[in-house]
Amino acid sequence: MSTAPASLRVKVARKTVEAEGICSFELVSADGRPLPAFSAGSHIDVHLSGGLVRQYSLCNDAAETHRYLIGVLKDPASRGGSRAMHEQVVEGDELTISPPRNHFALAHDAKRHLLLAGGIGVTPLLCMAERLAATGGVFHMHYCTRSRARTAFASRIEASAFAAQVQFHHDDGPPEQQFQLDAVLAGADDHTHLYVCGPKGFMDAVLGAARARGWPEARLHYEFFSAEPVSTAGDRAFEVVLASSGRVVPVPADQSVVKALAACGVDVMVSCEQGVCGTCLTRVLEGEIDHRDVYLTPEEQAAGDQFTPCCSRAKSARLVLDL
C-alpha cells in the first residue's frame, strides 16, 4: 500500500484545550516556509506513531498560509489516533502531514447556506462560516453539543462578526434552545445548500430528514469522520480482475481488496481504510459491488461504477477493476 505522493513536515506550535475532551493543535511549517493554500472544508492526513494515519479538518482562516489549525476529540472508542494526539503529541513535536485535500467544498454559486454541526464536526463548518462571512455569503449555522463545557471554539464564534448567524444547542440546556431539525429544514428554501458534519448518528438523522423532504443530493454536502463497524461474519471470497492486464487476484473472506492487491504487488493509495476519505476510490468496470463506505452518495453507490477497495467488497463472484 502506498502513502500520499507528497508530505509536509510541520511543528506543533501550540496545543490548547478548547473544551472538555477536545484539544486544538496549531501546526506550522518545520522549515519556516509558507504552507500550501487550502479552501474551507479541507482536511489533512496526520501520520502518527505505529503507522496510524488520521484525517482532521482545518478550522483556521483559509487565507492563512503560516499555520494549520485542527481540533481533535479524544474519542473513548479511539482506534489509537485521537488518543495518540491527546496523550503523546506535545508542543514542539514535529509531525508528517499530507497537503490539504477538499472533499467537502462550499458550493459558491449557492444563494444560501445552512451549516449543521454536531460536536467536533464544527471544525470544517467553522472554517466555512468564516469564509462565507468574509465573502458576503448568506448563511445560518446550528451548532449542537452535549453541553457548553463540550462546545469547542464557542468563545471564538461568539466574538466573531457572524455570531448572530450561529445558534448553539446543548443537550442539557432548556427546552426552548433544543435543536428542532424538522423546523430548520422546513425553513430553508429551494436555493439553500445544506452542509453537515459530526457523529454518524447526527449526520444520518440530518441527511435522512433532508432526503425525506425531497432535498436533491446536489444540495447536500457532508463529511464523515469515521464509519460504523460492519459485520464481517458473512463475508466470502471473490476475485478481482485488473483490466489492464487481465490478471486475476483472489480476495479471501478475511482480507480487504486493498490488502489482497498489495500482497500481489499492486499498490492502491489509501488513507483512512474505513471508506470515509475517498483516497482509494477505484473505477469498477464489471461486477456487483457490496458498498460499505460512507464516502459515496446513495446515487453514486447505485451507479455501481466505483468503490472503495479499503472496505467494500463484491456481491458477485468477480469485480473487474480499472487498474
Automatic annotation (TrEMBL):
Keywords: 2Fe-2S, Flavoprotein, FMN, Iron, Iron-sulfur, Metal-binding, Oxidoreductase. GO terms for molecular function: 2 iron, 2 sulfur cluster binding; metal ion binding; oxidoreductase activity. The keyword Flavoprotein applies. PROSITE patterns: 2FE2S_FER_1, 2FE2S_FER_2, FAD_FR. Its cofactor is FMN. It comes from the Bacteria. Gene3D superfamilies: 3.10.20.30, Nucleotide-binding domain of ferredoxin-NADP reductase (FNR) module (3.40.50.80), Translation factors (2.40.30.10). Transmembrane segments: none annotated. Residues 238-323 form the 2Fe-2S ferredoxin-type domain. InterPro entries: 2Fe-2S_ferredoxin-like_sf, 2Fe-2S_ferredoxin-type, 2Fe2S_fd_BS, Beta-grasp_dom_sf, DmmA-like_N, FAD-bd_FR_type, FNR_nucleotide-bd, MRET. Residues 5-107 form the FAD-binding FR-type domain. This is Oxidoreductase.
